[in-house]
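Q: Given only this backbone (330 positions), what sequence would you predict?
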């Protein structure tokens, strides 16, 4: 029997401050109609300036511990998925370990942008499947506002801040938990979505700040096209490999970057609209946080239940892309 990893609890944290499209129209030349029509976003939550990713991640982790009814020192491993770590080092996972008092845990950060949560889920699952650990926490957390150019209307409107966490534990049933995944990287897409400043290529200097290199740079339409194509391709590949049809899925949870990407990909996959989870209107794109936030909404709305088959899909900077198939455990 194959040992599988199942998700046994979810934790979330969304900062309280709501920023509407109207609020953004005060900051840059944009309007509610354009944003809703082109992205599906109505509002997003932003942290108060100065709030670090570890704070959001720790709050989501604490929520998770409460949901599962366990203490922090039962956690053996923490993977924090983020592109907005508090600092280059130490890893945000170390800061979270300390903040929540997970005395027995080791961990590290994983960088895969918007595909990060799925990559983290898959990596964490390996430690359960191998028998090395029994409680692994995967946290997707980003403070995207810390790297948004306040003058760039094309990116400012897209992103929100949030964190979501899942707990992975061994499954007694080999048909329950993470069943399969299909991930891919196309590094040639790197320049289409990146933060060029601050790393070893362009170390921070007056010059990099003046050139606004410490912000998100995105060629929106190139990312859009890749995202639709890859989400469909990897989703289809995963279904076919498991002899499944769209109808077999209880629900489809995609990374929430643009409602038009989700609609186009799910239509191409032939999925019934009621199976497609969307919550981008209220959170925007929270990078590593979107999928756990959407899992939470799917559970709360009764669209994700014990025994359901759920397919996840994501595309992000890198380019990174991934899909995963999970039989829901609770
Ligand atoms: O999370 C993973 C990574 N990110 C994504 O998946 C994002 C993928 N890309 C997208 O979602 C879309 O490309 C965007 C939402 C970023 C942009 O939408 P678009 O329909 O691709 O617009 P565009 O970039 O082709 O721009 C169309 C027009 C331009 O004006 P002109 O040149 O036609 O006069 C832009 O300047 O829309 C303009 N525009 C805006 N107008 C009002 C761009 N941003 C805005 C804005 N408000 N906020």
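A: Predicted residues:
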């Amino acid at each position: 029997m194959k040992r599988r990893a199942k998700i046994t609890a979810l934790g979330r944290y969304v900062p309280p401050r709501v920023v509407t499209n109207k609020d953004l129209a005060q900051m840059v030349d944009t309007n509610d109609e354009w944003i809703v029509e082109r992205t599906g976003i109505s509002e997003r939550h932003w942290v108060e300036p100065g709030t670090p990713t570890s704070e959001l991640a720790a709050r989501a982790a604490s929520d998770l511990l409460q949901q599962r009814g366990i203490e922090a020192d039962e956690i053996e491993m923490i993977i924090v998925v983020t592109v907005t770590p508090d600092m280059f080092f130490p890893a945000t996972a170390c800061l979270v370990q300390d903040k929540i008092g997970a005395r027995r845990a080791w961990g590290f950060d994983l960088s895969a942008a918007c595909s990060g949560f799925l990559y983290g889920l898959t990596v964490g699952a390996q430690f359960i499947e191998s028998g090395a650990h029994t409680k692994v926490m995967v946290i997707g957390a980003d403070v995207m506002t810390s790297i948004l150019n306040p003058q760039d209307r094309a990116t400012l409107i897209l992103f929100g801040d949030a964190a979501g966490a899942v707990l992975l534990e061994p499954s007694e049933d080999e048909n329950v938990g993470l069943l399969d995944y299909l991930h891919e990287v196309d590094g040639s897409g790197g320049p289409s979505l990146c933060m060029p400043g601050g790393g070893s290529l362009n170390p921070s200097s007056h010059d990099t700040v003046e050139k606004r290199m410490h912000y998100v740079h995105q060629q929106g339409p190139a990312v859009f096209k890749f995202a639709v194509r890859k989400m469909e391709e990897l989703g289809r590949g995963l279904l076919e490999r498991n002899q499944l049809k769209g109808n077999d899925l209880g629900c489809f949870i995609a990374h929430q970057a643009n409602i038009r990407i989700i609609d186009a990909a799910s239509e191409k996959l032939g999925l019934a609209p009621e199976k497609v989870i969307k919550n981008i209107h209220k959170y925007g794109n929270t990078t590593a946080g979107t999928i756990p936030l959407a899992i939470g909404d799917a559970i709360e709305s009764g669209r994700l239940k014990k025994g359901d088959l759920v397919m996840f899909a994501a595309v992000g900077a890198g380019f990174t892309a991934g899909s995963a198939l999970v039989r829901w455990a609770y």
